UniProtKB/TrEMBL annotation:
Region (Disordered): 1-26, 237-272
Keyword Oxidoreductase among record annotations: no
Compositionally biased residues, Polar residues: 248-258
Protein name from the UniProt record: Class I SAM-dependent methyltransferase
């Protein structure tokens, strides 16, 4: 265990920790880790046909902007930032005295979050998370609705993490898209990660996937050219109690660690 990761583990909420699989570690190794350390790109998601999606490293590593602050004003209760990246949102919430935790599969990103004064854990959302079923708000911003390439699996998992009636705030792509891709993280110097699955969703697609899983839309808005949706869990305290009684011990253990994070919601650059 590195010094940075030991610091993260001792400062964050305790809980079972599993080592992410290879596709998760693509966010921990070069070139993503180098970009997070330096706070700048260029960095892209790419696939074999020349499709490129610019990643907004500078924005992720800066302080929360006005669009971010608008999101944070809408949060309720304790906040779980899924795929927290370099930690700007968790750090801002901590400054405001809000109970918040970031989780991310990049050890470098988690260490940076802790360095900013936030609480964070190095793990996938599909691994055990502290206070499961008790979070007031979950965040899936900066394209993180794409984690794992399976929106329904991700939305179902987040539903279980929230308290009954909890709030999910998700950022969507500002075009009508619903696609699954296999991508790699690349930089301008030829650095490339291992390939991993990802998804890109516009608002309509997100709502289609969410409704059958017990979510209802409560708001939609655009800020700073970015699109957001607020969803509320329909689950009641009674149904949560029944669900827990039917679950075997450790039922929230790792479902799949083949999850990665963090493209921007911007439209891709194509035909490089």
């Amino acid at each position: 265990m590195s010094t940075a990761h030991h610091l993260v583990a001792t400062k964050a909420t305790t809980g079972t920790r599993s080592v992410p699989a290879a596709s998760d570690r693509s966010w921990s190794a070069d070139p993503y880790a180098d970009a997070v350390r330096s706070g700048r790109g260029p960095l892209f998601l790419s696939r074999g046909d020349g499709w490129l999606l610019p990643l907004e490293v500078e924005r992720w590593c800066a302080r929360a902007d006005e669009a971010d602050l608008d999101v944070l004003r809408r949060c309720e209760g304790s906040v779980l930032d899924v795929g927290c990246g370099p930690g700007r949102l968790v750090a801002e919430l901590a400054e405001r005295g809000v109970t918040a935790l970031g989780i991310d599969v990049s050890e470098v990103a988690v260490a940076r979050t802790v360095g900013l004064g936030g609480r964070a854990l190095h793990r996938s959302v599909f691994e055990p998370v502290p206070d499961e079923g008790r979070w007031g708000t979950a965040l899936l911003v900066d394209g993180n609705v794409g984690i794992g390439g399976d929106p329904r699996a991700l939305l179902a998992r987040v539903h279980r993490l929230l308290a009954p009636g909890g709030l999910l705030i998700a950022e969507t792509v500002p075009v009508d898209v619903d696609e699954r891709v296999h991508v790699q993280v690349t930089d301008a110097r030829g650095g490339t990660s291992a390939p991993f699955p990802w998804a890109r969703l516009g608002t309509a697609a997100l709502l289609r996937h969410a409704r059958p899983l017990g979510w209802r839309a409560v708001d939609q808005w655009v800020a700073g050219g970015r699109c957001f949706v607020a969803l509320r869990s329909r689950r009641s305290r009674r149904s949560r109690s029944r669900s827990r009684s039917a679950e075997p011990p450790n039922s929230t253990a790792l479902i799949s660690s083949q999850r990665a994070r963090k493209p921007s919601g911007d439209s891709p650059v194509t035909d490089r």
